[in-house]
Amino acid sequence: MKVALVHDYIKEYGGAERVLEALTEAYPDAPIYTAFYQKGSPAYERFKHKKIRTSWVHYIPGFSTKLHSPLRFLAPMIWGGFDFSKYDVVIGSASWYVTKGFPNKGKAVEICYCHTPPRWLYGYKTSVEWQRFWPIKIYGMIVGHFMRQYDYNAAQRVDHFIANSKEVQARIEKFYRRDSTVIYPPVSLASSVQRLASSKTKNILNANALDARRSYYFIVSRIVGAKGIDMAVEAARKHGFKLKIAGATAGYYTGLKTMKETAPENVEFLGRVSDEELVKLYSGAKAFLALATDEDFGITPVEAMLCGTPVIAYHGGGFKETVIDGKTGVFFHESTSDALVKAVKKFEKMKIDPKDCRKQADKFSKERFLKEIKAFVNNAMKKK
Q1: Selecting from 3.40.50.2000, 3.40.120.10, 3.40.50.720, 3.20.20.140, what CATH number does the domain 190-364 have?
Q2: Helices (H) and strands (E) in the chain, counts
Q3: Domain locations in the chain?
Q4: What is the largest CA-CA distance in the chain?
Q5: What's the chain's Rg over C-alpha atoms?
Q6: What is the rounded distance in angstroms from the CA atom of residue 178 to the CA atom of residue 158?
Q7: Which residues make Cβ contacts (< 8 Å) with residue 76, sequence separation at least 6?
Q8: Confidence at residue 343, expressed as pLDDT on a 0 to 100 scale
Q9: What is the C-alpha to C-alpha distance for residues 288 and 309, in angstroms, rounded to an integer?
Q10: Count of Cβ atoms closer than 10 Å to residue 262 Cβ
């Protein structure tokens, strides 16, 4: 069975790229087709040893750094430039670059693993700041009108949809009028957890209850808009709790400088960290803060629970599918710093067993993901 993998582009490294990594494990001989890659980027360092096949826009100077967002209307020509007719299966990893509905696929079965219908097309908050400038906003509205039509038509050419959560499954039905199967993304820190479990941090990972060594709250995220990071900084200022934030900026976000300048001393910005360091940070935290109001799935709360760390989460999006209120974490229902402070105070009066957190996280293992993906693909081929 000849398989091709298709991904928006290879630049930032986040949840979608962790899914792509798992897909390359399931199908190690499959090439990765992508709009472009950026050498030296976090994602490129992960995939540079794979067979990467880029589109023609990869060779346009500046496209990978500044032009791919304003020239997003080129997506139909980008994906139309690839020939997938020699493959049996084409698996698209799709989010904001309309990576679906490939026209030149011959008899190949197309399976779309949908992280979400493009948020910018359907009124969801995005991390990009171009909406602030009215000439560009008008330009985006015009482009968006035609791209929504294209996105809908492309979705009708997909043979099978996989949604990464029930939240996204509902969006696929709403915007595309298509059915889908939910296969949750994989938690890919398991190997790092195993290595640390046999090291000097074993006593943290195997603790029966949260102890005094857990002295801070933790966030790991791309430092962009719509993630609630500024709200967490404000809550830390009001309540005085220690907060550590890992992650780097992406896209056109410019708020990090202001946050650093105005943040109190109890807030620490760590920048990008390795998986091993990330596991230590998860494991040493009192709780992980998951603050986006309409997260597609949200893999980081699951990673935190895998390390035995509970989650304080906004009651919305994919968080509702991963966190168990009162057992593996606490929900709050208003996206304000005051509501977050109340949730922190409530959490600090509770006792949550790390074993319950890890048990919940095990439901989202990479082994489970690989098994379900392979079974789905095989069944799709049988129905061909």
Answers
A1: 3.40.50.2000
A2: 14, 13
A3: 3-186+366-382, 190-364
A4: 60
A5: 21
A6: 9
A7: 98, 150, 154
A8: 97
A9: 7
A10: 12
Residues for the chain: how many in total?
384
Higher pLDDT among residues 181 and 293, named by residue: 181
Give the three-class secondary structure for 125: coil
- Return the CATH architecture of domain 3-186+366-382: 3-Layer(aba) Sandwich (3.40)
Helices (H), 210-365: 229-239, 255-262, 275-284, 299-306, 337-347, 354-361
Instruction: Say if residue 194's pLDDT is above 60.
Output: no
The structure tokens 């922190």 sit at 344
pLDDT at residue 196 in the model: 59
Cα–Cα distance list, 108 to 81, 182, 372 (Å)? 16, 22, 20
Q: Which amino acid is at 148?
A: R
Q: Is the pLDDT of residue 208 over 50?
A: no
Q: Checking DSSP bridges between strand 285-290 and strand 311-314, what pairing results, if any?
A: parallel
pLDDT score of 367 more than 60: yes
236 token code pair: 């830390």
* Bridge partners, residue 219, by sequence: 245
Average pLDDT value for residue range 172-189: 93
Is residue 200 scored above 60 in pLDDT? no
Going across the sheet that includes 109-114, the strands are 52-54, 32-34, 3-7, 89-94, 109-114, 160-163, 181-182
Encoded tokens for 366 = 């990479």
289 phi/psi in degrees, rounded to 5: -105, 120
Calculate mean pLDDT across residues 70-93: 95
Same topology, domains 3-186+366-382 and 190-364? Answer is: yes
- Rounded Cα gap, residues 45 and 26, in angstroms: 20
Q: Is 278 exposed, middle or buried (0-12, 13-18, 19+ CB in 10 A)?
A: buried
pLDDT of residue 131: 58
Helices (H), the chain: 15-26, 42-47, 75-80, 134-156, 166-176, 190-197, 202-205, 229-239, 255-262, 275-284, 299-306, 337-347, 354-361, 366-382
Q: What is the pLDDT of residues 219-274, one digit of tens each?
A: 998 776 667 888 999 999 999 999 999 987 665 555 667 788 888 999 999 988 88
Range in 99-108, 182-191, 291-300, 353-362 with the lowest mean pLDDT: 182-191
* pLDDT, position 223: 73
